[in-house]
Design goal:
heterodimer, A: about 800 residues, alpha+beta, Aldehyde Oxidoreductase, domain 4, Aldehyde Oxidoreductase, domain 3, 3 domains, 6-stranded mixed beta sheet, B: about 160 residues, Ubiquitin-like (UB roll), DNA polymerase, domain 1, 2 domains, 5 helices
Chain lengths: ~800, ~160
């Protein structure tokens, strides 16, 4: 007879595929077989297509719009303009930043590619043809492109709709093109530190305008069911519940009569947080026509009109002692927000969390001030793979620290080590008011320097420079060090909301009688693999194998309310809600187990997948057994069933950090910059799925590479967009993308139920300064302090030329 | 607009339809035939999300008209798995090695790799990177895609040798 021995603890843990397991993704079966369901895959009976007539000008008055020819075209159903939306009061929509944005241009266009008319037709070809037939007569106006001239006395007036409204959403406006002034910290103290310092450095650092450019563009399908009065909106929404509430508020359709669904989303990176005119126009058109309307922007529309990122001009000043102790930081930002303030930040933070700009350093006094201005450019200002304005802050401080290191003639890694917040200082309150929850920066950078043989690299660089001087090579070696602290997981409801919606998140769990489960969350994956990882959190909490847990998100009719996925908030907030809901399940399961085992609850202990009697593990009930009993056995004093819901309001943000080291070789005669190696050490606290973490870091670094080395959306002097298609806008291919080396330390968050911190955005935050510092480092011995990104071949060659290094 | 009669073989099935000659092949596949595996990610033939296999070549189906595919033999991501439903080595390797995240580039990427491995059954890492440079991915940083294709290549050549 074969006697099967019971599974060991290790086997039981492995079966769960819980925390720490590199579980393969459950999403992949459909995606690898072409069975994903993205918004453009939705096809409904009778569905019509919408397309936009867009402005060819950066700034112009609309003198007339003639729809006749378009409407006469067979297959065209409707042409909407601002005049049609005005009676519904929908020609403007509220932005997330407390401003309003024109849904369709109202008398004026304020940026090239602005939405002017919405054509609805039987198919996308007819809609596109009809757009050409809408005759719009414009009177061109002087365009304002340079943010530094926005507040000049003779600057063109952009926003006529608010010209007399000198009190904005964030206080007084100093000029008709001014949006807000926001500041924090001790300006007097920072100035005094600068005045008293042995050494100071100052630099104006521009973080250029870029775009998240997910491979899937934005789009939606709106379907008004006239029989039951319910509007369903499928779309590329990173925050479906917030979209439902906002849609209800602006259309006056009761919230229970709106269903918002985010299907599979082909990447978001911040692009899909906002509400765009296409969504509103599709909904209106469906309400008017009574049939479903699809709108999907093309790539040029995406790059030109929906959600740019950055465009921050940051003037940083650092004060330090002669031996390299940083004594103060002063920073002022001129923020170019484009024609409408549509930044996606928590409402009380018009510059996001830019005041994390003291970075990873123990800086005793600091000040930062931000002024936002309007220009004739597309609105946006979204957090492109970073928490709100955090990559800007990290870029500024990491460049400034490098610049200071040059001035002090110190090694940039050594200067960082000298000024890091020490392990024993956590929780640490920064000069600009954040409470850093945890960190161990010295260990991380030391591990990184050891892993890349930092000293040997610096020695090689000395040799390389000598060889260059001797004419033996035309390449210069650069070593970029960056150390970042992210601030993610917005956030505590007491100070983080979007249009008044508190930024908690949620999880609801139902355990089925046979011991499998479904969990629903208020977030929505756009490639992060939530269905895989959140099931892992639950598996460890409730002892049900991850493969027996279905995870759903994105349908507001079924999922609990939550604020969505961006700013690396899913794991810190919804992940916490998942663990807490799991613990509620476990608490009830313990009561049931006590009844079944006829012991007191206190006599039980949790063990992997079961409750067992303390000191007598043979007496136990597995979660599977408990689940069955919960539905099928009358237990005195307990309701039947095993369900839980948790709405989690985090007590603090989480603060992931990391040490990145990049080595480049620059050909001075061509500007071609080879990324020789890139080492990324991330500390995101407890690691849920190492495979997915590594994948996130690879992807984030590749986006950082793109930003630092080539991406830019610029405008010419009359407001024509340059870089508005993939002809010009740089997305690296597999050829330009190097091999990434990843590493980690683990410093769990003390306030998160499982100690996790979030990781998806860290590599962008740390990656951009690492690349940029590497490029600057290559020329540092020639006196280069700073050049503006992107460091494309042409710009790098210009730098080499200016330094007299080219042939 | 007048329609033209088109006929082609897609994933082993003969397809006949009337289509406007200007219809892009990608729209025909997605909207007329419901083959929504191939995606649209750009307007300029850069992203490769729409990649299909046409007469033994990788083709970006957004760059040709349906009329140009007359009598063609086409394979899309929906036709990559074996007829018995088991996954192709590439599909399995992409899952095993985390070669995808949002999944939007994946159908084009796998379809391109499917042809690449027929053109070059034992590619080096560099050849793979060059071979998929017409397909953009915004999520993975390519590293695990390259690895998945390497692993699939090895598995396919082991299978080949066994036969």
């Amino acid at each position: 007879m074969n006697v099967q021995s019971p599974p060991t603890d290790k086997q039981r843990i492995e079966k769960l595929q819980g925390l720490g397991s590199s579980r393969k993704r459950v999403e992949d079966a459909r995606f690898t077989q072409g069975k994903g369901n993205y918004v453009d895959d939705i096809k409904l009976p009778g569905m019509l297509f919408g397309d936009f007539v867009r402005s060819p000008y950066g700034h112009a008055r609309i003198k007339s719009i003639n729809k006749d020819a378009a409407l006469a075209m067979p297959g065209v159903v409707a042409v909407l303009t601002a005049e049609d939306l005005k009676p519904l009061n929908l020609h403007y929509m509220p932005t997330l930043a407390g401003d309003v944005q024109a849904v369709l241009a109202d008398e004026k266009v304020l940026f090239q590619a602005q939405e002017v008319a919405f054509v609805v037709a039987k198919d996308r070809y007819i809609a596109a043809d009809a757009c050409e037939l809408v005759e719009v007569e414009y009177e061109e106006l002087p365009a304002l492109v340079d943010a530094f001239k926005a507040m000049d006395a003779d600057a063109p007036l952009l926003r006529e709709d608010i010209k007399d409204k000198m009190e904005g959403a964030h206080g007084a406006r100093a000029h008709y093109n001014h949006i807000f002034h926001w500041d924090c910290g001790d300006e007097e103290g920072a100035n005094k530190a600068l005045a008293d310092a042995d050494v100071t450095v100052e630099e104006m650092i521009t973080y250029q305008r870029v775009h998240p450019c997910p491979l899937e563009t934005c789009g939606c399908v709106a379907s008004m069911d006239k029989i039951n009065g319910k509007l369903t909106l499928w779309g590329t929404f990173q925050a479906p519940h917030a979209v439902r509430t906002v849609a209800s508020l602006i259309t006056n359709i009761p919230e229970h009569k709106i269903r918002v669904v985010s299907p599979d989303i082909g990447g978001g990176f911040g692009n899909k947080v906002g509400v765009y005119p296409g969504y509103i126009c599709s909904a209106v058109a469906s309400i008017v026509t009574g049939v479903p309307i699809k709108w999907v922007e093309d790539r040029m529309e995406n790059l030109s009109a929906t959600a740019f990122a950055r465009d921050y001009h940051m003037t940083g000043k650092l004060a330090a002692t002669k031996d390299g102790v940083i004594t103060g930081l002063h920073c002022h930002v001129l923020a170019d927000h484009g024609a409408f303030d549509a930044c996606a930040d928590p409402t009380k933070f018009p510059a996001g969390f830019f005041n994390i700009c003291t970075g990873s350093y123990d800086i005793p006094v600091a000040y930062c001030g931000v002024d936002g201005v309007y220009t004739n450019k597309a609105p946006g200002g979204v957090a492109y793979r970073c928490s709100f304005r955090v990559t800007e802050a990290a870029y500024m401080i990491e460049r400034m620290v490098d610049i200071l290191a040059r001035k002090l003639d110190m090694d940039p890694a050594e200067l960082r080590m000298k000024n890091f917040i020490k392990k024993e200082q956590f929780p640490y309150t920064s000069a600009l008011g954040w409470e850093y929850d945890s960190g161990d920066y010295h260990t991380a950078l030391e591990k990184g320097m050891e892993s890349v043989s930092y000293k040997a690299l610096r020695a090689e660089q000395v040799d390389n420079r000598a060889a260059f001087e001797r004419g033996e090579t035309r390449k210069l070696m650069g070593i970029g060090v960056a150390f970042f602290t992210e601030i993610v997981g917005a956030g505590p409801v007491k100070n983080c909301d979007i249009l008044g919606l508190g930024m908690f998140d949620s999880c609801e769990i139902r355990i089925h009688p046979t011991g499998s489960a479904i969990a629903r969350l208020g977030t929505i994956s756009q490639g992060q693999g939530h269905a895989t990882t959140f099931a892992q959190i639950l598996a460890t909490e409730i002892g049900i194998p991850a493969e027996d847990i279905t995870l759903e998100e994105g349908d507001t009719d079924t999922a609990p309310y939550g604020l969505g996925t961006y700013g690396s908030r899913s794991t810190p907030v919804a992940g916490a809600a998942t663990a807490m809901a799991g613990r509620k399940i476990r608490a009830k399961a313990q009561m049931i187990a006590a009844y079944l085992l006829e012991v007191h609850e206190g006599d039980l202990e949790w063990d992997i997948d079961r409750f067992q009697v303390k000191g007598n593990p043979e007496a136990h009930k597995t979660m599977k057994e408990i689940a069955f009993a919960s539905y099928n056995q009358a237990i005195p004093g307990l309701e039947p069933g095993l369900e839980a819901v948790s709405y989690y309001d985090p007590p603090n943000m989480t603060y992931p950090f990391g040490a990145y080291i990049c080595v480049v070789d620059i050909d001075v005669d061509t500007g071609v910059t080879d990324i020789r190696s890139f080492y990324a050490l991330d500390d995101c606290g407890t690691r849920i799925n190492p495979m997915i973490i590594e994948g996130q870091v690879h992807g984030g670094l590749t986006e950082a590479l793109a930003i630092a080395m080539g991406q830019e959306i610029s405008y010419d002097e009359i407001g024509n967009i340059k870089g508005g298609s993939l002809m010009d806008f740089y997305l690296p291919t597999a050829v330009e993308t190097p091999m990434w080396t990843t590493d980690f330390t683990t410093t769990p968050s003390p306030h998160h139920p499982i100690g996790a911190k979030g990781v998806g955005e860290s590599p962008n935050v740390g990656g951009v300064p690492a690349f940029s510092n590497a490029v600057h480092d290559a020329f540092a011995h020639k006196g280069l302090t700073h050049t503006q990104m992107p460091h494309d071949h042409w710009r790098v060659w210009k730098t080499a030329q200016k330094l007299g290094l080219t042939d | 607009m007048s329609k033209t009669h088109v006929k082609m073989t897609i994933n082993g099935d003969e397809v006949e339809a009337l289509a406007e000659p200007r219809t892009l092949l990608i729209h025909f596949l997605r909207e007329e035939l419901g083959l929504t595996g191939p995606h649209i990610g750009c307007d300029t033939s850069h992203c490769g999300a729409c990649t299909i296999d046409l007469d033994g070549k990788s083709v970006k189906s957004c760059t040709i008209f349906v009329a140009q595919a007359q009598n063609a033999e086409i394979t899309t991501i929906e036709g990559i798995a074996h007829p018995d439903g088991t996954l192709h080595a590439l599909q399995e390797a992409f899952r095993q090695h985390h070669g995808l995240q949002c999944g939007f580039c994946t159908p084009g990427m796998i379809t391109r790799a499917y042809r690449l491995l027929q053109e070059n059954p034992n590619p080096t890492e560099e050849e793979i990177r060059y071979g998929i440079s017409g397909n953009l991915c915004r999520c993975t940083g390519y590293q695990n895609i390259v690895k998945a294709i390497q692993v699939a290549a090895e598995e396919l050549s082991v299978k080949e040798a066994a036969q």
